Amino acid sequence: MPENKEVRTRFAPSPTGFLHVGGARTALFNYLYAKAQGGKFLLRVEDTDQARSTEESFKTILESLKWLGIEWDEGPHVGGPYGPYVQSERISIYKEYTEKLISEGKAYRCFCTQEELEAKKKQAEAMGVPYVYDGLHANMSEAEVQEKLKAGTPYSVRFKTPSKTLIFDDIIQGKVKFETKLIGDFIIVKSDGFPSYNYAVVVDDGLMKISHVIRGVGHLSNTPRQILIYEALGFPVPEFAHASEIVGMDGKKLSKRAGATSILAFRDLGYLPETFLNYMALLGWTSPDGQEYLPGDILPKTFDVHRCSKSPSTFDVFRKPKGGDEEVATNFSSLDQIADAMNPKSKLNWLSNKYIRELPIQKVAESLVPFLENRTDIPAEYRDPKNKELHSLVDSVRVYLDNLRQAPDYIAEFFVSDLKVEDGEAKEILSQEFSPNIVSTFYELLKKSDPKTDEDYKALMTQVGEQTGQKGKTLFMPIRVSATGKAHGLELPILFPLLGKEKLLKRIEKISVQVGISLP
């Protein structure tokens, strides 16, 4: 590409569903490369599949991009010199170029019925050879064509594929070679008058002066058809970069459900947009210095599509399926199901914890508000992102957070006033014969010591175990119930430093009175 040519990239989603991980990564790579090169990033809506395209999907995709902070220089709601940026509004443009191709003998009308085409495909299958359209109507006379048109016979338009070896250099995949005789004459305009994907995308990219087409490797097989159309229309062929396949923890291509989880689901699970952008950038790309935590403007300054790997990239967000667990990891119907299927040791969680710890507390508090709104166990004034006491609480707990959805449970512990032992498992634990000794020993050692950190409390509980002869659940569960009234909750070494020694002592005293445990 000439040095003075402006870098222009685009993301062109079809509004037939939500924005999933693969699509979001494509948008991100295009956005980052344009920003890094001082170029322009376009958003174009490919809605020629009218049966499946919906306004709701269009709005969801825009909402997803805006949440991620991916802003387009040209496109819907922004405008630009090469609009409209919605394909269904560009039908007259495609028609003009179709007539041009037909008049130049580079395309022709095909009057084959669907039944005839299906029969040809079945015949090819029976013979064990790939199906290639036989060009039945490629050489019809003008009189024959006009007769069909006058009779109202439905038709599609096919591109007349020249026979040659097509070679191009893909920025990521390297040198790619195709034999066009294996393609055959393919449809560029469907019988309903709408252009095919391969045709519309070329007309749009050519007219919008797209310099780089960055997309998933699944589109590699579309490239030869598109290059042929670029050449036929006299448009410059852009540079292609086909990003690596994304696989799950089991090394297999992401399942339709797990891989296609909506980007907005991760927002609702409490991940910050900065976190998810950083994580997606590492799916097939490596920073120049090998760093993985890339806050602020590091990504837009350093991203280069030439540093992308053609090896599959692992989406480690979901744990590896195990036997019957496979359905849990791949078939989600709620946020809770997604949360249960997630891999706690994923790179996403590691990055999320770093961002939550290091972003300004005001930013974290503002992002936390949606997760506090319906928590009646947290006072209303603590749902105000400007509340300095909320800032103090968040600052105390954020080191323990993998996502903001976890935060309300931590914060709520500070406001427990009516502390009672829950019926059932909790009461049963404190009624066991060894429990009173464990609780009183922990209380006595706590009064005599001054623990501050999680390690201090771990050491304290280990000391209790040594004195009582208990370990594991029989040691920790009585301590938990005596401090919280519950059999389940936050990890004790995390909770206790947050509560502090004095509040913890008062809690144990209150619970002990309720169940009749004598304290020293």
UniProtKB/TrEMBL annotation:
An individual GO BP term: glutamyl-tRNA aminoacylation
Span of the annotated motif 'HIGH' region: 13-23
Source organism, top-level taxon: Bacteria
Function: Catalyzes the attachment of glutamate to tRNA(Glu) in a two-step reaction: glutamate is first activated by ATP to form Glu-AMP and then transferred to the acceptor end of tRNA(Glu).
Limits of the Glutamyl/glutaminyl-tRNA synthetase class Ib catalytic domain: 6-316
Domain Aminoacyl-tRNA synthetase class I anticodon-binding: 364-510
Localization annotation: Cytoplasm
PANTHER family reported in the protein's UniProt record: GLUTAMATE--TRNA LIGASE (PTHR43311), GLUTAMATE--TRNA LIGASE, MITOCHONDRIAL-RELATED (PTHR43311:SF2)
Name the record gives this protein: Glutamate--tRNA ligase
ATP-binding is among the record's keywords: yes
Originating organism: Leptospira neocaledonica
MF GO annotations: ATP binding; glutamate-tRNA ligase activity; tRNA binding; zinc ion binding
Keywords recorded for this protein, A-Z: Aminoacyl-tRNA synthetase, ATP-binding, Cytoplasm, Ligase, Nucleotide-binding, Protein biosynthesis
Binding site for ATP: K256
GO annotation, cellular component aspect: cytosol
Family: Belongs to the class-I aminoacyl-tRNA synthetase family. Glutamate--tRNA ligase type 1 subfamily.
